[in-house]
Amino acid sequence: MTAQKKLEVLQNTLWDVIQSQDGRNPAYERNQVESLKAAIFALEKQIPQKPTPSEKQHIRYAMCFTCPSCERDFSGTGIADYCYHCGQALDWSDTDEMPNIKSKE
C-alpha cells in the first residue's frame, strides 16, 4: 500500500470517528481524533513534494529552494531527501525543468 493510499484510509477513518462520536466518553473520543490527526500529519511528511526555487539566493554559487511544507529556505539541489527544518520528504525528479536552475553546457 502506498503512502498516499494509507493517507486516504487514515483521513476516512478520522471522518468516521468524528461522525460516530456519541458523547459517552469524550476523553476517549478526543484521544482517538488527536491520534489520527498526528498520524495523518506524520504520513503527509513522508509523501515527497517538489521544492520551489527561492526568490532569494542566500548562499553564493548554490541554488536556494523553499520547502513546500514549512516554506523555509534551504540550499542545494538534490543534496537532501528531506527538508532540514521540518522533515518533509523532497522530490527532486524534475530538477532539469525548474526555471531557475541553469545547466552547465
What do these coordinates show?
- The chain is mainly alpha-helical and 105 residues long.
- It contains two helices and three strands, in the order ααβββ.
- The chain has helices at residues 3-19, 26-46; strands at residues 52-53, 64-66, 73-75.
- Helix 1 (3-19) packs antiparallel against helix 2.
- The termini are far apart.
Key phrases:
disordered C terminus, 2 helices, mainly alpha
Summarize the structure.
With about 100 residues, the chain is mainly alpha-helical.
Secondary-structure map:
Elements: H1 3-19, H2 26-46, E1 52-53, E2 64-66, E3 73-75
Antiparallel strand pairs: 1-2, 2-3
Low-confidence stretches: 100-105
Q: Shape, please? A: elongated
Per DSSP E runs of 2 or more residues, the count of β-strands stands at: 3
* Rg, nearest Å: 19 Å
**Strand share of the residues?**
5-15%
